[in-house]
């Protein structure tokens, strides 16, 4: 086969699927690890961005979904269900279509970004908007799948983590080593759990000789892991990580402890500053939740928790086009200038 086959085949020795399973893939993974010169200069480190918006549905969720959907098909499942702040539902909808399954998604009413809703719509998911937050949606999805023949494809399904851990393999494969520090946004805490598992596996097999410190960042209004207790009314501009009671709490905590890492909160203002910096200085357009990894990097650099000269990877988890409303709302120059056809150069102050 020419080109990248998708991560199940690429890492077939490390990602288990049922024997003779039909692999459901959109050739996810193999995303760019882009050097970030401006951030490197600001922090005195070598900073790279793992650009997960380059996955087929525009977020890292595709890594878990290819594995979850492959298992679902092998088990003879006809329908899948998930709770989501938007990206899991977009990915589940796409992969279910690919697999020929029906999908149902439970999303918090009015709190998911427009691009993500559009994806669930075009892929033909049954979309149920719940009066409540992500945590309420997840409880409902768990209950429904426990009582009915429908497979839960949230990251509480352990095979999702198996897919998502491959991002750590890719980082090591490209750098030729593990980074010193890995920064991630944390919502339901599945992804930080998955990366740590990936790094541990590579280290255990001698493919790298060190593991990174895991730095997890939550939005200040949705920071249960920073406060050490669930948050009942999570609130943040970064709707993707608007989660009050992370399902993978214990595993994420273990990752922080084992890696000598940390959890910290970043304000919406810090998130939006990092969001604009990424777009304007690095040329990388991400959704707000993704920028929290970079907001956290800058905060930790400022408060001295980030040793200079470190090799740092920040995962930017989802594409900026997911959330056009935030993109336009945040800008001063929202209104494109209307211009006379003869006056372009004048309008651009070139004359
Ligand atoms: N970044 C983005 C863009 C996300 O969509 C999510 C989670 C995270 C970061 C956090 O990852 O939950 O593994 O800690 N989105 C989930 C969803 C909750 O429903 O799409 P996590």
UniProtKB/TrEMBL annotation:
Pathway: Amino-acid biosynthesis; L-threonine biosynthesis; L-threonine from L-aspartate: step 5/5
Enzyme class: lyase
UniProt GO molecular function: L-serine ammonia-lyase activity; pyridoxal phosphate binding; threonine deaminase activity; threonine synthase activity
Binding-site residues, pyridoxal 5'-phosphate: 87, 187-191, 317
Any one GO BP annotation for this protein: isoleucine biosynthetic process
Keyword vocabulary terms for this entry: Amino-acid biosynthesis, Lyase, Pyridoxal phosphate, Threonine biosynthesis
Catalytic function, reaction form: O-phospho-L-homoserine + H2O = L-threonine + phosphate
Pfam short name (any one): PALP
Positions of the Tryptophan synthase beta chain-like PALP domain: 24-318
Enzyme Commission number, as recorded: 4.2.3.1
Superkingdom classification of source: Bacteria
PROSITE patterns per the UniProt record, alphabetical: DEHYDRATASE_SER_THR (PS00165)
InterPro entries from the UniProt entry: Ser/Thr_Dehydratase, Ser/Thr_deHydtase_PyrdxlP-BS, Thr_synthase-like, Thr_Synthase_bac/arc, TrpB-like_PALP, TrpB-like_PALP_sf
N6-(pyridoxal phosphate)lysine modifications at: 61
UniProt cofactor(s): pyridoxal 5'-phosphate
Crosslinked positions (Isoglutamyl lysine isopeptide (Lys-Gln) (interchain with Q-Cter in protein Pup)): 143
NCBIfam families associated with the record: thrC
Function: Catalyzes the gamma-elimination of phosphate from L-phosphohomoserine and the beta-addition of water to produce L-threonine.
Family, similarity comment: Belongs to the threonine synthase family.
The name this protein goes by in its record: Threonine synthase
């Amino acid at each position: 086969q020419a080109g990248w086959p998708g991560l199940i085949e690429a890492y077939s020795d490390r990602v288990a699927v049922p024997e003779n399973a039909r692999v459901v893939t959109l050739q996810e993974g193999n995303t760019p690890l882009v050097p970030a010169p401006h951030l490197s200069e600001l922090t005195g480190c070598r900073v790279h961005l793992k650009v997960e918006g380059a996955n087929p549905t525009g977020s890292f969720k595709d890594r878990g979904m290819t594995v979850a959907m492959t298992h679902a098909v092998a088990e003879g499942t006809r329908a899948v269900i998930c709770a989501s702040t938007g990206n899991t539902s977009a990915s589940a909808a796409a992969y279910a279509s690919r697999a020929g399954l029906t999908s149902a998604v439970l999303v918090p009413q009015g709190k998911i970004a427009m691009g993500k809703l559009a994806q669930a719509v075009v892929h033909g998911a049954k979309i149920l908007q719940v009066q409540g937050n992500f945590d309420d949606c997840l409880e409902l999805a768990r209950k429904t799948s426990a009582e009915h023949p429908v497979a839960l494809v949230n990251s509480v399904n352990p095979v999702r983590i198996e897919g998502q851990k491959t991002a750590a393999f890719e980082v090591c494969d490209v750098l030729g080593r593990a980074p010193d520090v890995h920064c991630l946004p944390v919502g339901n805490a599945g992804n930080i759990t998955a990366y740590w598992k990936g790094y541990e596996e590579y280290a255990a097999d001698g493919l790298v000789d060190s593991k990174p410190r895991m730095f997890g960042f939550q939005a200040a209004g949705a920071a249960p892991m920073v406060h050490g207790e669930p948050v009942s009314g999570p609130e943040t501009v970064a709707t993707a990580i608007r989660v009050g009671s992370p399902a993978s709490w214990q595993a994420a905590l273990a990752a922080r402890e084992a890696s000598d890492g940390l959890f910290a909160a970043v304000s919406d203002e810090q998130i939006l500053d990092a969001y604009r910096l990424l777009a304007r200085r690095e040329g990388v357009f991400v959704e707000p939740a993704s920028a929290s990894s970079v907001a956290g990097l800058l905060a930790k650099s400022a408060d001295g928790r980030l040793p200079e000269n470190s090799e740092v990877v920040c995962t930017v988890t989802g594409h900026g086009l997911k959330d056009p409303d935030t993109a336009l709302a945040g800008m001063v120059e929202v209104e494109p200038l209307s211009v006379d056809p003869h006056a372009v150069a004048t309008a651009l102050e070139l004359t």
